[in-house]
């Protein structure tokens, strides 16, 4: 842990760094590949929409360890004539979900299930959701997501600038697409909890992005008044300076979510946790990736198109080339063989130039036996 802290401090001070901006085409390619895979999975498999969006019924049996998942699924599909999703809960009860079923059939299906399970019908709880209610839930979810996006863009445009707002929006769409695509590929059920998870991970993704943007905004004040760094180089320093913080924040957030997904949903059989925990887990990982590898490099690309920033790049590169040409012979004659101004050409401007003035007291009486004047 001390080594990690030391690494973070060195990254923050700029003593070491990784060229994220310089390799941005690689990150873009990886993101495009993952996004295409997610879109293909979404188009081919589609989303497994829950009854909250389609309408249907949920039957929950009392604690009965003798009822298996396969037995419950077969009985539910025969009784209803629709596909059933069955989950074994941690307390031994069984949750049977039948989407698209007419609510008038619920009493008949409930009685048939009671006969097959050899239990009293009153021990089976039935929750019904109408199709109109499902449509209303879906519309509200899309409206909430659209309003969230608009408010985010407006805030970032005011707090920072429109280029950062565009980059953040692209990163958010990237995170949503990957998360939804993973849901399609895995086949997990989409419920209102999934929507809540999506909105939550968008907040986490924006948090990491805004941290980097704030550092970038602070370091690019009076950008064109210096000729030491280009905008892309300063953006790269901002990423490196906040890298360990972003990684630590993401790991700390992923650990409890992983517990919900793998332990709660996997080992304990709490299937109701899967819908929200999967969206949180995938979204947090995608958000951390996009804030580092997508949002900030995209801002650098957009800024480098500005005439002032392009002119700055030309001046920086020209000055480095001139400094390298002028100082190369003198560097080989250093008293310790080390180039103290490497990577900092402007430091040479502050050095004292011209002949040195030796103290007048030195050398007096040199060459005389006693040093006395005659």
Keywords summarizing the entry:
11 helices, single chain, alpha+beta, 374 residues, 4-stranded antiparallel β-sheet
Short description:
This protein is α+β, with helices and mostly antiparallel strands.
Main sheet record: 4 strands, antiparallel
Q: Distance between the terminal alpha carbons, to the nearest Å?
A: 74 Å
Q: What is the count of DSSP helices, taking H or I runs of 4+ residues?
A: 11
Number of strands: 6
Determine Rg (CA atoms, Å): 32 Å
Fraction of helical residues? 55-70%
- Relative strand content: 5-15%
Spatially, the strands of the biggest sheet line up as 3-4-2-5
Give the overall shape, derived from the CA principal axes. elongated
Spans where pLDDT lies below 50 across 5 or more residues: 330-374
Average pLDDT level: 77
Please give a structural write-up:
This protein is α+β, with helices and mostly antiparallel strands and 374 residues long. The strands form 2 sheets. It has a 4-stranded antiparallel sheet with strand order 3-4-2-5. β3 and β4 form a beta hairpin. The longest helix has 37 residues. The protein is elongated.
What is the fold's blueprint, element by element?
Elements: H1 2-13, H2 24-45, E1 48-49, H3 51-54, E2 56-60, H4 69-80, E3 84-88, E4 94-99, H5 106-117, E5 125-129, H6 131-159, H7 162-186, E6 189-190, H8 192-219, H9 231-267, H10 274-303, H11 307-331
Parallel strand pairs: 1-6
Antiparallel strand pairs: 2-4, 2-5, 3-4
Helix pairs in contact: 1-9, 2-7, 2-10, 4-5, 6-7, 6-8, 7-8, 7-10, 8-9, 8-10, 9-10
């Amino acid at each position: 842990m001390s080594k990690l802290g030391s690494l973070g401090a060195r990254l923050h001070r700029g003593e070491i760094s990784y060229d994220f901006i310089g390799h941005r085409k690689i990150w873009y390619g990886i993101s495009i590949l993952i996004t295409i895979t997610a879109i293909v999975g979404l188009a081919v498999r589609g989303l497994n929409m829950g009854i909250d969006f389609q309408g249907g019924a949920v039957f929950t049996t009392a604690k009965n360890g003798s009822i298996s998942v396969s037995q419950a699924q077969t009985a539910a599909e025969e009784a209803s004539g629709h596909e059933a999703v069955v989950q074994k809960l941690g307390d031994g009860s069984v949750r049977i979900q039948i989407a698209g079923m007419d609510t008038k059939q619920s009493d008949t299906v409930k009685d048939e299930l009671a006969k097959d399970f050899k239990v009293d019908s009153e021990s089976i709880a039935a929750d019904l959701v109408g199709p109109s209610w499902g449509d209303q839930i879906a519309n509200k979810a899309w409206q909430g997501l659209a309003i969230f996006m608009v408010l985010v863009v407006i805030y970032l445009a005011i707090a920072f600038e429109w280029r950062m707002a565009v980059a953040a929006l692209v990163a958010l769409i990237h995170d949503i697409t990957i998360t939804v695509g993973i849901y399609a590929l895995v086949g997990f059920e989409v419920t209102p909890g999934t929507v809540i998870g999506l909105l939550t991970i968008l907040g986490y993704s924006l948090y990491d992005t805004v941290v980097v943007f704030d550092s970038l905004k602070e370091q690019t004040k009076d950008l064109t008044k210096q000729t030491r760094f280009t905008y892309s180089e300063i953006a790269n320093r901002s990423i490196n300076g906040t890298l360990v913080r972003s990684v630590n924040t993401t790991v700390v957030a992923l650990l409890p979510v992983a517990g919900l997904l793998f332990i709660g949903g996997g080992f304990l059989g709490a299937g109701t946790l899967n819908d929200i925990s999967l969206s949180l887990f995938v979204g947090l990982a995608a958000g951390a990736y996009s804030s580092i590898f997508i949002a900030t490099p995209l801002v650098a690309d957009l800024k480098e198109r500005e005439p002032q920033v392009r002119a700055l790049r030309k001046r920086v590169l020209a000055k480095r080339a001139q400094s390298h040409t002028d100082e190369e012979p003198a560097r080989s004659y250093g008293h310790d063989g080390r180039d103290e101004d490497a990577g900092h050409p402007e430091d040479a401007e502050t050095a004292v130039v011209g002949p040195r003035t030796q103290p007048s007291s030195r050398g007096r009486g040199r060459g005389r036996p006693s040093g006395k004047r005659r």
